[in-house]
Amino acid sequence: MVDALHEARRALRHGGTLIDLRPDSSHPPRVVRDGVDVGGFYERREAIADNRASDRAVVRVVRDGLLKPVRAGSFWYDTPYPDLASLDAWCATSRRIGGYTPRTHAALRRDRDRPLIVHRALAFGIYRRTER
Amino acid sequence: MRAAPYIRGKDVLDIGTGEGRLTWVIAATAQSVVGIDPDADAIRAARREARRRGLTNVRFVSRPAQALRVGRERFDTALFSWSL
Questions:
Q1: Over the stretch A52-86, which tens digit does the pLDDT of each residue have?
Q2: Full-prediction pTM beyond 0.90?
Q3: Which of A5, A98, B42, B71 is most buried per CB count within 10 Å?
Q4: Which residues of A111-128 are buried (b: 16+ CB within 10 A; e: fewer)?
Q5: Do the chains contact at A11 and B66, CB–CB below 8 Å?
Q6: What's the CA gap between B76 and A31, in Å, rounded?
Q7: Nearest beta carbon to residue B74 from set A12, A58, A124
Q8: Which burial class, exposed, middle or buried, applies to A62 when counting CB atoms under 10 A from its CB (0-12, 13-18, 19+)?
Q9: Is A6 helix (H, G, I), strand (E, B) or coil?
């Protein structure tokens, strides 16, 4: 990850900007039906560990003076799914999502053909390339 | 996410572009976008979609982030989208 950051920095013009955008593990995704929060998902342990490793890599590159933090934060975004089957398919193939939290799937099965929305938090960090 | 000032009119490197899920949004206002991803199948799909959309300011490269090898190219903005 540090290598990737170094490469990206090398690809930037002087004063260029690096944006790190990824899911915010401190706020696992929620699933919403008809405007009501039905339940959530848990993230795989490896995904959380990867996220922490990425955090450490960014801290290291900043500490080394190669990037300067400009702004950071998080925001929510929604992804629609037409029904439970399509949400199950996404959940089964996601490298990040480990599965539904307890009772979520049972609640979703009660009305399986209704459209669903996954509400996800994304964290972002904006950094400026320093001159070194 | 208030990224517009870093995208509009800029030369952008989209690292971890996949099938281009964010590339199309970026390409709408950027000067140019180079999407890079180690998944060759995803890059092929992204190229097809770029042709379908008629985009002329987008290019895709199959390569890992650790070996960008961008040569003399320099970008205003590098975006790690789900890829760091």
A1: 999 999 999 999 999 999 999 998 989 999 999 99
A2: no
A3: A5
A4: eeeeebbbebbbbbbbbb
A5: no
A6: 36
A7: A12
A8: middle
A9: helix
- Asked if the C-beta of A108 comes within 8 angstroms of chain B's C-beta atoms, the answer is no
B1, A122: Cβ pair inside 8 Å? yes
Q: Are B80 and A8 inside 8 Å of each other by CB?
A: yes
Which residue of chain B comes nearest to A72, CA vs CA?
B1
Residue B33 and residue B49: Cα distance in Å, rounded? 14
pLDDT of A85-95, one tens digit each? 999 999 999 88
CA atoms of B21 and B46, how far apart (whole Å): 9
Nearest CA in chain B to A76: B1
Please answer yes or no on whether A4 and B75 come within 8 Å at the CB atom.
no
Local structure of B79: helix, strand or coil: strand
Domains of chain B are: 4-80 (3.40.50.150)
Give B37→chain A minimum CA distance, Å.
12
